[in-house]
């Protein structure tokens, strides 16, 4: 990575990193030509504070230029950044402190980068100050690194256990970056946007580091900016002539709500005809929602072949398989009778096979656990003597799927498998069926199996769904029956208080923890009065966090309307 940054000193001065606090305001611009001097300046700052090669530094990866150059500066120094989720103000402090304490104990880290979100928080580690803003050392040649040197540690999602540290070597990092860039064929002239958090492999590798490697513009926004203003993301793509992006399926589901209620004039102003490739991964893809998204934005120039469903994991740095650019998404029927979406062919560097429940290798179209070998697969977890791979070099991923005509289809996780009358289904099959209903909050449903019973735990978006409780439960059961073909008991459909469905740092449901909470009686159902209180609290939080962002966004739309009106008036005068 450091040799790539060194070469950027001769990059086009117009190319670089564009950091947005929101989608409306002007960005902070850091030309790629300045990267080497900024990295060297950060490294010198850390060296002066006693950080040495091999020092393990917990790095809460906020989206800012200071933290990005701190990360790269630690790499230049030969220290080991442990990339973790930053503290979010709306979350409890105790669990976050406990998480940091476990990282300290498990991985021997003694210092933590003192990012702004940690202000006022008691920490179990010594604070390491951020480099001064804009710190530079011009004319310094960055060091050469050995291929097997540890670049940083990233963490698995932690959907079934405490997140595991994955050691990312310089060699494996470079290899996976080459795979991604070769696959999408981008050039230095392209522009990419991302709002994914940088502690997550899709955000760090797929968003930031691929762009640095190619030298193409990256328009990087705060994760909260998308949550507050999903249409602003589309407007940024339109106005800044963006070629591509990388997003989780959640983004489609979330943006769809705003698109359905959007003002027609707002959509008319969008020009998405330059979009060529959007990686779509991280979680099961909601196929009906993806189709609706494409239908709504087709008049804006968004082609049906821009989405590239993909498959990857922290253990392989990032990508394992992906649909290529300009190929329409392929949907077929899975062995369990449910629709499944292709994530393309595995990259040539990886060898993929599938193993059935009885231990035999799967044939064409048979459902089994995905096993990987080769490519950029890590040899083991960080500071863990147990091999990641089996005796023949294959890694059992815990993901289930099947292959058809060389393409890979993901159906779910082993731990998410639900068996009904001897037939295999997956939690996502049921959850997507439930979330088709307008009164269910997208991404806020968990379907678990407890002693043979299927239990639906869902958050609703309006008290009226609770006031007609029996009818709402009946609609849930009917949607599941029509979509999945399984009958639920209405008594097992529970509408719950907000915030009880535990998720990983990457937004995946922690199903084991949720099931345990349910079995221990810790999941609370919600009354209409409690829901009104939850909604008021949530709206208040959004008002505080988003008032400036929304005001700026409205101002930009107002100015765009004004400019259009002025242009129309001038045209009439000329004619």
From TrEMBL:
Classification via PROSITE patterns: AMP_BINDING (PS00455)
SUPFAM superfamilies membership: Acetyl-CoA synthetase-like
UniProt domain AMP-binding enzyme C-terminal: residue ranges: 415-525
Keyword Membrane: no
GO molecular function terms listed in the Swiss-Prot or TrEMBL record: adenylyltransferase activity; ligase activity
Domain of life: Bacteria
Keyword terms: Ligase
Cross-referenced Gene3D superfamilies: 3.30.300.30, N-terminal domain of ligase-like
Residues of the AMP-dependent synthetase/ligase domain: 31-382
One Pfam assignment: AMP-dom_DIP2-like
This protein's GO CC annotations: plasma membrane
InterPro entries: AMP-bd_C, AMP-bd_C_sf, AMP-binding_CS, AMP-dep_synth/lig_dom, ANL_N_sf
One GO biological process term: fatty acid biosynthetic process
Family: Belongs to the ATP-dependent AMP-binding enzyme family.
Name of the protein described by the UniProt record: Fatty acyl-AMP ligase
Organism, as annotated: Corallococcus interemptor
């Amino acid at each position: 990575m450091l040799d790539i940054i060194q070469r950027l000193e001769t990059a086009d001065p117009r190319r670089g990193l564009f950091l947005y606090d929101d989608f409306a305001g002007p960005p902070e611009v850091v030309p790629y030509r300045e990267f080497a001097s900024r990295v060297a300046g950060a490294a010198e700052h850390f060296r002066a504070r006693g950080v040495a090669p091999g020092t393990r530094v917990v790095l809460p990866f906020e989206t800012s230029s200071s933290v990005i150059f701190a990360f790269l500066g630690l790499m230049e120094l030969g220290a080991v950044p442990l990339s973790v989720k930053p503290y979010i103000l709306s979350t409890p402090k105790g669990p976050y402190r406990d998480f940091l304490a476990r990282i300290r104990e498990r991985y021997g880290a003694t210092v933590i980068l003192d990012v702004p979100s940690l202000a006022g928080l008691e920490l179990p580690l010594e604070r390491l100050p951020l480099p001064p803003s804009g710190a530079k050392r011009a004319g310094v040649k960055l060091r050469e690194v050995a291929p097997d040197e540890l670049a940083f540690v990233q963490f698995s999602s932690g959907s079934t256990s405490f997140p595991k540290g994955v050691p990312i070597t310089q060699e494996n990092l470079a290899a996976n970056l080459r795979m991604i860039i070769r696959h999408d064929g981008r050039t230095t002239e392209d522009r990419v946007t991302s709002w994914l958090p940088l502690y997550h492999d899709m955000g760090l590798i797929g968003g930031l580091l691929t762009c640095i490697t190619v030298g193409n513009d990256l328009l990087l926004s705060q994760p909260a900016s998308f949550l507050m203003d999903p249409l602003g993301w589309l407007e940024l793509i339109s106005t800044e002539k963006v070629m591509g992006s990388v997003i989780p399926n959640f983004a489609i589901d979330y943006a769809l709500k705003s698109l359905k209620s959007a003002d027609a004039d707002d959509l008319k102003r969008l020009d998405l005809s330059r979009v060529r490739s959007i990686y779509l991964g991280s979680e099961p893809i909601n196929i009906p929602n993806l189709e609706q998204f494409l239908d709504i934005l087709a008049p804006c120039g968004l082609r049906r072949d821009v989405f590239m469903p993909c498959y990857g994991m922290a253990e392989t740095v990032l990508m394992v398989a992906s649909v290529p650019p300009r190929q329409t998404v392929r949907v077929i029927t899975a062995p369990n009778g449910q629709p499944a979406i292709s994530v393309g062919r595995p990259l040539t560097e990886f060898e993929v096979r599938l193993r059935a429940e009885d231990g035999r290798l799967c044939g064409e179209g048979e459902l089994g656990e995905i096993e990987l070998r080769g490519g950029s697969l890590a040899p083991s977890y960080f500071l863990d003597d147990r091999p990641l791979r089996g005796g023949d070099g294959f890694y059992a991923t815990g993901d289930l799927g099947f292959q058809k005509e060389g393409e890979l289809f993901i159906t779910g996780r082993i731990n998410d498998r639900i068996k009904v009358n001897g037939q295999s289904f997956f939690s996502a099959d049921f959850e997507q069926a439930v979330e088709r209903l307008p009164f269910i909050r997208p991404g806020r449903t968990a379907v678990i199996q407890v002693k043979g019973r299927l239990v639906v735990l869902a958050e609703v978006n309006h008290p009226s769904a609770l006031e007609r409780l029996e009818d709402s439960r009946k609609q849930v059961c009917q949607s599941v029956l029509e979509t999945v073909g399984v009958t639920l008991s209405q008594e097992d459909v529970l509408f719950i208080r907000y915030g009880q469905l535990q998720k990983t740092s990457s937004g995946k449901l922690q199903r084991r923890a949720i099931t345990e909470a349910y079995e221990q009686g810790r999941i609370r159902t919600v009354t209409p009065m409690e829901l009104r209180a939850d909604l008021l609290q949530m709206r208040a939080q959004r008002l505080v966090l988003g008032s400036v962002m929304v005001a700026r966004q409205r101002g930009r739309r107002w100015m765009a309307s004004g400019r259009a009106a002025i242009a129309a008036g001038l045209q009439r005068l000329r004619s």
